Structure formats: C-alpha cells, structure tokens
Amino acid sequence: MYGSHFDKEAQRERTCSLVHGTWRCVGVRIASVGACALMVGQLLLPSLALATECADPAAATGEVAAAPVTPAVAEDAAPATAPATDAAPTAQTVAEPQQTAPTGATDESNDAAPAEQNTPSDNAATPANDAIMPCGVTDVVGGSDVRVNITVWNNYTDIKKEETIEYVKGIALVDGDQSALDGSALTFIGLGDLIVHAAYDSASNKTTLTLDISKIQRQKEEQKYFTEYRENKSKMTTTYDGSKLTYTGTEPGNIIIGDPDDAFKGDTEATGKPTINEIRDDYYTRTHVYERACLVIPAAESESESISFANVQNTDFNWQLATGPQVTAGVPNYDADKYEIAYECWQEFENNEPVAAWYSDNGSHGSLPTITKFKSGKEYVYSLMLKPKDGYSFSDETVVTVNGETVKSSLSGEFLYVPAIKTITMPASSENEALENLNVNDVKTDYAPGEAPRATATIPAADADKYEIAYECWEEMDGSDPAELKPVAFWYSDPAKYTPGMKKIEHFEEGKFYMYSVELRLKGDNTVADDCMMYVNGHWTHHIKTANGVFAPNADNMLCEQPIDEWRAIDVIEIDGATTTFKAGDKPVFTANVPTGSNSLPQCEYWTGSDGSEVNSQKFWDQNITNHIDAFKPGVTYRYGIYLKPARGFYFTPDTKLKINGVECGYQVGEASVVDPESGWIYTLWLNTDLTFTPEATPTPDPQPTPDPKPTPQPEVKPDTKPEQKPEAKPEAKPEAKPVATTTTTTKTVEKTTPAKKGDAVLAATGDATALTVAALGIAGATVAAAGLAATKRRKR
User: Fold this and answer.
1) With the CA atoms of 485, 488, 489 and 490 taken in that order, what torsion angle do they form, in degrees rounded to the nearest 10?
2) How many DSSP H helices and E strands does the chain contain?
3) Which of 53, 101, 744, 764 is the most exposed place for a label (fewest CB within 10 A)?
C-alpha cells in the first residue's frame, strides 16, 4: 500500500519536475526572443528614421509636427573662407524622448544651418530655394528608450579655377555691365599699367573694354602680356556633394535589470537608456574663380614686295544712251597674284561738281545718287581703285597703265587710286526729254549782320534754255516755339509776291535764323521727270512740282553771325563710346559720341560689309540702302565709318588724326567729302576707318544634363557591434570634384560638430511610420521578455 503510494507520489514529483523544467526552458526562450526583438528595434530605429528623412524630408505632415534636425551654428564657428582644418565646431541639437508633439512645437535651434553650408561669407547670395538642408538625427529617443548621438563633420574641398580675359589689339568684349571698370588700371608683367576704358551697351548687355596700345612697339612676332591672377569672389560657388554616416559604438544601459515587471511601468531610471554613437560627414565643394588679363599685341607687318608696274585692260569707254555702267576692267593673268581691282567708278558731273555716281562694288562711297543710265548731253568721268594682295604693296613710284595708256595715280592707304582716267560726254538727243536734274548755283548764304538780302542765284549755262529763276525768298523764322518754326518776316526778289501787311526783311540781324526758298520756271515745252533731282549750291534739296516748274521750300538756311576772323584746324578727332565689335546675329547699334566742347560734330555712323551690304545710323541715308545689314553675318568682314562736320570757324586737314575709344585709328577720306582744292581744307569729312571685324559662327553647345537644384544627400549607414571602433575622418568613396578651369588647386577643410543635449524634443523627428513600427516592435519585444521572466518565476515558485 505504501509502496504503491510511494510510487505514485514519486511519479507525480517526477512529472511535476519535468513540467516545471519545461516551463522554465520555455520562459527562458521567450525572454531571449523578447530581448532580441528589443535590440533589433533599438538598432533599426535611428537608421530607418535617418534614411526616411533623407528620402522624403517633407513627409512629416498632418497632426504630428516634424521637428527639423538642422544642426545649429556655434557662435564661435570659424568662417568657411579660411581653409584651416582646425575650424571651430558647430553646435548640434538634441531630441529628448517624446513620441509626438503638438502642432507648431519648435526647437530654438531648428532655424540654424551648418556653418558656410550654402552661403559662405565671401560668396554671392544664394536663393533660398537652393539651400541645402543636412539630413540626420541627433539624440532621437525611440519607443524602446534608445538614444542616438550624432556628431557632424563638415568637409570642404576647395577648387581653384583660372580664367583669362583676352584683349586682342587692346579690345575685349565681356558679358554684363562692367562699366565700373572704366578708369581702372591693369598691371601687365613686363609692360606696366594700362588704363581701362569701359563702354557698356545695354542693347546687347555687353561691355567693350579698351586699352590704349598706341605707344607699344610691335615686334616681329606676336607678343602676349599677362596680369597676375586675382580672385573674383562674386563668381565663387558652393555645392553640396553628399554625406556619409559611420557607426562608432553603443553605450549600454540597464536594459533588463531588476524586476522584469518594471518594463510595463515606464520606469526609465530602472530600465536605463542605451546610446548609439554615430558620425555624419557632410561633403561640400567650393569653387574659387581667379581671373587674369592677357594683352595680345599683333606682330609687326612684314615687309612686302613693291609693285613697280600695274596694268589694267579691257576697260570699255564706248557707252550708248539709256544704257547703264557695267564692270569691264580686268588685270592681266601675269599680275593676278599681285593686285586686283577694288572697284570701278563712273561719276556724272555738272559745273565741275559730281552729282551722281556708280561703283562696281556696290559699296557706300558717299551720299550721291546712283547712276542707273547714261543721259543725253551729260558728262561722265571714269576712275578706279587697285588693291594689293598679300605680300605686295603699291608705292608713289608705281606706274599704272589703262588700256595701254599711262595714267596718273596716288596712294590711298594701302590702295592705289587712279582718278579721271577718261571723260566722256553723251550725245544730245534731238527730242526734248523730261528734265532729270535741276541745278541752282551761287546762292549767297553767308550774310553778315546789317547786310540786305539780294538775288544771287544762277542757272548753269547748259540749262539756260530749259528753265530760269522765277523768284528767290528769305524768311525770318521765329523759334520761340520749340515744336515749330514760324515765319515772321519776308524778302522776295519778285516784289509782286508781297501781300498787304506783310513784314519785310530790310537787313539781316545777328543771332536770328533765316530760311531760303527758290522757285524755278520751265521754258518752252520742257517738263520735269517724276524722279527729277534738284540741287542748290551742289546740295540735294526737296522740291515740289508747280504748274510751270518746281518750288524748293527749304533749300538752305542761315544763322546770321559775325564773320569769322580766324579759321582754325582740327588736329585730332576724338570719338568715344563707339560700339565696334559684334557677334554673328547681332543687330547694328550706333553709340558714338564726342567729348563735351568738341569741334568735331558727328552726323552719322555706318558699316559696310565685304559682301556689299551697308547700314547707316541716319534714316535719310539708311532708307535708300538696298543690300541692308539687318544683322551681322559670320564670315563677312565689316568696316566702320563715320561722317563729321567741323564746328563754325574750324576745318579738317589731311593730317587730322582720328581716335576711337581712346585708340588712334587709321582711315581713308571718302570721295563725298567736301575739300577746298586750293587750301586742302576739308569742310565735310566722310571717314572709312581701319576698324574692321569678322564675326565667327556661334558653335552649337552640346546638351548638358540639368543639375538637381536641391541635391538629396544619401547617407551610408554602417552599424558595427564593436564598441571600441574609432570613427574614420575620411570617406571611403571620396566625392569627385569637376572643375571647369584648365588649372585647379584642391584643398580640404573639415569642421567638427560636437553634440550638445537639449530636452523636450519630439520623438517622431522624421514623421516616418516605419520608425514608429520599429519602435512598436521594440516595445513588443520588451513586453514578451518581461512576460517570459515572470512566467519563469511563477513556475519556480
């Protein structure tokens, strides 16, 4: 009986002991699984939060306010412009354990940014939408009471980019308004200081920089002079290249110490707070632009072979009425490599004055109308211009023959001008033709104060049987109204033109303005052609057809002044602000002016192209141009010209020098210039200057990928369980800098940021649901672990 009982009792004890052991094993395993889940949640929480924030920094929306985690700048942070490696550390924000925060909760360090992150002190201001916000989490507390401590290092790679501004023949064209450089000096090595003249053109948004190189002697070979490199701080740029996250160890806390049931009480002092330490390296590239000037002095012109004889052949002088001039002259084959015909010219003369002209090159050679056909009874004079080819030149000793006959010639710059080779007079027609030219000569327009008006106009003897002077008229103009001149007194050569009450001009008065008019009366059955041209004292004038002739209402004018006692010569013509270079596709702009008080008075500017095109700044001449320059074309050489008149009491001479934008420039006197044949004084001056340019075709740029205005940093998280591992100061994959300049210099600057704790920060700094899920996993693990320990204790009891 006792044996049986003993057996059952022993069996029960063995069974209970086995069951209790099994429960103990199960409890231990449950506790282990819970602890593992807890540790996984602790390790994944900061990493996943950081990755989520980098991928979508704006994801924190809704009821939970996402607290920015931008590191603050320490007050004693060193400026980023100093490339020192011992930069003062910047401050870092700290978030205390808190899972949610009310909307609008802020941290006083949220508005701070890393020192010199995007707008360094010596850089141009950067738009706010391009600002680069660093990504990372500092002292974020997860749901399992895990603290993450991040130290930020700012790493700067400095790149030196060198650029050269080239002055060709002393002129450089740069983008933008650089007029502030006007009057500044550039110091060239081996040459000295040269003053910069800057002229800004708002139409093209470009500035022409000019250096006076007239005193620099040319050498046999091209010379280049350079200035020292100087940094242009306005061009410095800073770009964000990315970041790297390095795990440096975990400071353990008392995760499971004491009663496991305390895990359900939220007793933080009992459970402890393990801290994960990490280092985030932020990488930036700073590009510093250094500029220098390069002055290019062309080589001196090499000596050329002088041409002793120049021959022109096949010139046609046998023209018929109603036919127009054509190109006929040529150069013999044996001289074709030495010179060529620049142009042939026919001029129509009346009273020894040219009234119309034709040029074979269709170029602009003055304001005379173009000859379209030879007219009956008119006199025509033939001339031509020869141009030497490379390696050859003309001289005063060059002998010229045309169709085998020796003719006179004269040098015009490098060209050889052959004037008045042949004069022909077209035969008179037996029938009356419509008059195409009307001329009035000898009109006196230089009355002195106190002189009385008188009839002085005459008709050329050749036209005396065709028309006559009907009457001449002088009107005193009242200029009190700037918008309109009104006549207040009159003088007529024909007394029948006066009306009752009309005020008469008895004599001219000093300082008053007078206008001259004239009417012509036709003789016989002569008529006036629709395209008839009228000239007064050799100058074209507007006219109106009348019942029996024509009337020129404003043929000339005069400001009555005292006679000039002494005429003075103009030695130098100074033109400022002229735009003399353009790119292909640019439209012509005219900006020239003269200094205040100048005795040279510009009338117009113009450009002529090697393709026969031209453009003029004055509508009067520009409207009649057929081959018009609307935009400059690549490959065409353009020459700059200007038309000037002297101030009253002054005149130009053949020795007058020309300076454009401060640089002396050569020129040729245009044939339309008015020159006194006896004294050589020049009263109107058409200048064809030596300033030329040939636009180059603009190359089509290769398409470039558009950079991301807000580069997203891609942190690299590498957790390591080795608590003694030291942080690496340099990344494994160094960001590559891509400087544009030929020569670059790279330096590195590292700024260390140490952590500083700050309480009451929000938990969900990134507002990421994944982080909350991991936090929940950690809480669940802790709960399971505590439950397993409690079960084990109860089984043991």
Assistant:
1) 50
2) 4, 40
3) 744
In this predicted model, what pLDDT tens digit does every residue of 760-791 receive, in sequence order?
Answer: 333 334 444 544 554 555 565 556 555 555 55
Residue 644 has what pLDDT?
A: 94
**Rounded Cα gap, residues 719 and 741, in angstroms:** 40
Structure tokens at 781: 């693990």
Residue among 351, 346, 366 at smallest CA distance from 672? 366
The answer, yes or no, to whether residue 67 has pLDDT greater than 50, is no
How far, in Å, CA of 365 to CA of 641, rounded?
A: 10
How many Å apart are CA 358 and CA 479, to the nearest integer? 41
Query: Do 212 and 225 contact (CB within 8 A), yes or no?
Result: no
- Which among 70, 276, 241 is positioned nearest to 717, based on CA atoms? 276
CA distance 694 to 697: 10
What string of H, E and C letters represents the secondary structure of 364-392?
CCCCCCECCCCCCCCEEEEEEEEEECCCE
Residue 288: its H or E element: strand 275-297
Torsion angle of the four alpha carbons 617, 623, 627, 630, in this order, in degrees rounded to the nearest 10: 50
- Phi-psi category of 450—alpha, beta or left, where left has phi over 0 and alpha has psi -120 to 50? left
Mapped onto helix, strand or coil, the DSSP state of residue 246 is strand
**Mean pLDDT across the chain:** 76
What does the alpha-carbon distance between residue 427 and residue 325 come to, in Å, rounded to a whole number?
16
Burial of 58 (0-12, 13-18, 19+ CB in 10 A): exposed
Q: Are 437 and 541 in contact (CB under 8 A)?
A: no
Question: Do residues 657 and 600 lie in contact, with contact meaning Cβ atoms separated by under 8 Å?
Answer: no
Contact, 272 vs 253, CB < 8 A? yes
The position carrying tokens 């306010």 is 65
Question: What residue spans of 532-613 are helical by DSSP H?
Answer: none
The neighbouring-strand residues paired with 437 are: 533
- Please tell me the least confidently modeled range out of 75-89, 467-481, 493-507: 75-89
What's the CA gap between 704 and 339, in Å, rounded? Answer: 49
User: Using only C-alpha atoms, what is the Rg of the chain?
Assistant: 47
| Alpha helices (H) along 139-266 | none
Q: Can you tell me the distance from the alpha carbon of 520 to that of 547, in angstroms, rounded to the nearest whole number?
A: 11
Judge whether 462 and 351 are in contact, CB under 8 Å.
no
Q: Hey, how many other C-beta atoms are within 10 angstroms of the C-beta on 727?
A: 14
Residue 792 backbone class (left: φ over 0; alpha: ψ -120 to 50; beta: rest): alpha
CB 336, CB 369: distance < 8 Å: no
